[in-house]
Amino acid sequence: MDDDDGGSDVTVEEETAPESAKVREGPPDPEGKGGDGPLGTSQESSEEFTDAKHESLFSLETNFLEEESGGMCSLNASQDPFLQHVNKELKEKEIQAVATNSKTTHQLKWPILGQLVFSSKFQKLETFKPSKDIDLKSLHLQKPLESTWTKTNSQFVSGSPKSSSPFTPLQKELFLIMNSYRDLFYPERTALKNGEEIRHVYCLHVINHVLKANAQVLGNNSRRRSQKLGVGDDDDFRDQGLTRPKVLIVVPFREAALRVVQLFISLLEGDSKKKIIVSNKKRFKGEYGSDPEERPPNLKRPEDYEAVFVGNIDDHFRIGVAILQRSIRLYAPFYSSDILIASPLGLRTIIGGEGEKKRDFDFLSSIELLIIDQADIYLMQNWEHVLHLMNHMNLLPLDSHGVDFSRVRMWSLNNWSKYYRQTLLFGALQDAQINSVFNKYCVNLQGQVAVRNVPMTGSISHVLVQLPHVFQRMEAENLASVIDDRFNFFVNKILSQYRDAVMSHTLIYVPSYFDFVRLRNYFKKEELNFTHICEYTPKSGVSRARHFFLQGEKQFLLLTERFHFYKRYTIKGIRNLIFYELPTYPHFYSEVCNMLRATSRGEEATWTCTVLYSKYDAQRLAAVVGVERAAQMLQSHKNVHLFITGER
C-alpha cells in the first residue's frame, strides 16, 4: 500500500511553508480556508502540517457521485434512520418548550445491556426493544459496509456459537441504539473486556453516517449540474452544515486514534481486491504508532493497566480525516475534514480560552455525531478540558469559511444543531461528573438512553488480606461544603487517633489533587513526620519517599490516586490505611488494601483500614460495598460501620 501514500513523501520546503500557503496550493476550495489561522498555533508545527496535495480530490464542492459507488441506493428508502433524523423539522415552539419541559423517563430491561433508562425533553418519548435477530439489510448500511463489516468484525463473532449474526450480542444492542440516533451513555466499557468490540461498532456507525452524508451532497451536486440553471427549488438541495466536520471522536491516547483509523480503512476496503487510497499513511504510522522495544520488559503491572496503557500513550494530538467514496485523506485541514479525532488536551489547545488572540472553535459548529470514548480516563487527565469542549460544541461559527448558504440545512442556520447532535459516551464507571455531562449537554431530539446497572457485589470482596475496614460517615450540609467538611472531619476526628507513634506506617490515599495539596500544607504546618508522592513527583523523590516509608522513618505517606493510576507501584510497609475519599475506580480499593501483603512480618493483627464517606458518595460507596449495603450505610443512624475481610 505504500505506493498509494501520496502525501507521505513531503519535501522540507512544504513542511516549513506557512499554513495558509500550504492549503491554498490546491485549486481554490472554499472549505480549504480552515488551513490558515489557528491550526498552526500549536508549538509542534509539524503536528499541524496539513496535507495540501489532495485538496481538490477530497473537496465536496467540486466532486460528483460516481455511478459505481452505489449512489444513494439506501438513502432512497424513506425508512433510512439517517434521513429520518436529518430531515426531521423542529418547530420554534418545540424548541421553546424544551427549556421548560421536565424530562420524561422510562425504564426497560434489555437482554445484554440490562437496565436502560430512556429519557427525552421533547414531548414524545419512544422506547423500543431489540429484535431477536437482525438482518443487515434492515440496518440501511451504505455500500460497501454490508460486506466489509462482516470481515472486519469476524474476530469477535467467530468464537461465539454458530450464529449467523454479524454482530456480537452486545454490539447488536448498542448498534440498534446508535442507528436510532439517540444519545447513549454506556458506563461498562473496559479496556480488558469489551473495549475493542465497542470501538468496532461505533466506527461502523461513524463511517455509515459520513458516507451517507457525503453521498447526499455529491448526489445533489450531480443533480444540480444536470438541471438547467434557475430550474428547481434551491431548498431541495439543503444537505449540509455550516462547516464540513460532521463527526468528532474524542479518545485519550494516540494508540486509540491509530486503531480508529485502521478500522476506517478496514471498513472501506474489506477484502476487495481494489485497495483504497490512503494519503499520508506512512507519516501517520510514524506519529501514531509505537516501537514495541520502548517498553521496559521487566515491569509487572495488572492486566487492566497493560490494556489501557498500550502503544503510543501521548495525550496531545488532533487529526482531520476526509473520506470521499473509496479514499481516505489523513491530516486534512480541519475545515476540509469529515471526521476529527482528538484528545481533550489537543482540542483545548486549539479552542483556547477567553481573551486569547488565536483561538478557533468554528469547526465544532456542525458536529452531528460526538463520540467520547474512555471517558473515565479524562477524570485522571483533566476533566476541565472535557467541560470546555462541551461548552463550545455547536455554536454558530464566527466566520463563514466559504460555505454556500443555499446548501445549509435550515436547522443548522437556526442554530438548532445541538438538538440534532448525537452523543455517544463510553466509560468504565458510573461517575457523578460523567453523568452530569450526559444529563446537561445531551439534548438530542431523538432522546437519550443510559445504561444504569447497579453493582450487587462491591470490590471489597476482592480484598484478600485479613483486615478490619472501618467506614466513617461524615455529615455534610450540601455538595459545596463537602470538601471543607471532609477536611475538618479528618483533622479533628481521624488524624488525632493516628498521631501516636504506635500508628506508624500509615498510608493516606487521596483521590483529588486539590485535597492532596491541602493536606500536604497542613501536615507541613503541623510539622508531622510525613512524606508524599503525587503524579508530579520526580522518580528520585518517589524512590526516596517509598524507602523512608518502608523503613518507618516517616510515619505518614500521602499518595494521590492519579499517581496510582499512572504508575501502579506496590507501596511496601503499609500497616494502617486511610481512604480520605472513596477511590474513583472501585478496583483500586481492593488493590490498595492488598498492598498490605507486600511486607507482612507477623503484625497482621494490628492492621487497620479507615474510610471516609458522605451521602454524596453513594455511587462510589455502592461500587465498593455493593448497592444493598451502601443503602443501609447511608440510611443508618450509626455513623460507623465495620467490615472484616479475609477471615478463614
Compact summary:
Belongs to the UTP25 family. The protein has 648 residues and is an alpha/beta fold.
CATH class descriptor name of the largest domain: Alpha Beta
The secondary-structure class comes to: alpha/beta
Helix content: 25-40%
With helices defined by DSSP (H or I, 4 residues minimum), what is the helix count? 25
Radius of gyration: 27 Å
**CATH structural fold name of the largest domain:** Rossmann fold
Number of domains: 2
Beta-strand content bin: 5-15%
Would you identify the CATH H-level superfamily of the largest domain? P-loop containing nucleotide triphosphate hydrolases
Q: Can you tell me the overall shape?
A: elongated
Please report the total strand number as a whole number.
18
CATH architecture of the largest domain: 3-Layer(aba) Sandwich
How do the strands of the widest beta sheet line up side by side? 1-2-11-3-10-9-4-8-6-7-5
Task: Please give the largest β-sheet.
Answer: 11 strands, mixed
Low-confidence stretches: 1-47, 68-75
Mean pLDDT: 85
Account of the 3D structure:
Interacts with CAPN3; the interaction is required for CAPN3 translocation to the nucleolus. InterPro entries: P-loop_NTPase (IPR027417), UTP25 (IPR010678), UTP25_C (IPR053939), UTP25_NTPase-like (IPR053940). It comes from Acinonyx jubatus. Residues 21-34 have a biased composition (Basic and acidic residues). The chain is 36% helix and 14% strand. It is elongated, with a radius of gyration of 27 Å. It has 25 helices and 18 strands. With 648 residues, the protein is of the alpha/beta class. A hairpin with a 3-residue loop joins β1 and β2 (114-120). Mean pLDDT is 85; it is low at 1-47 and 68-75.
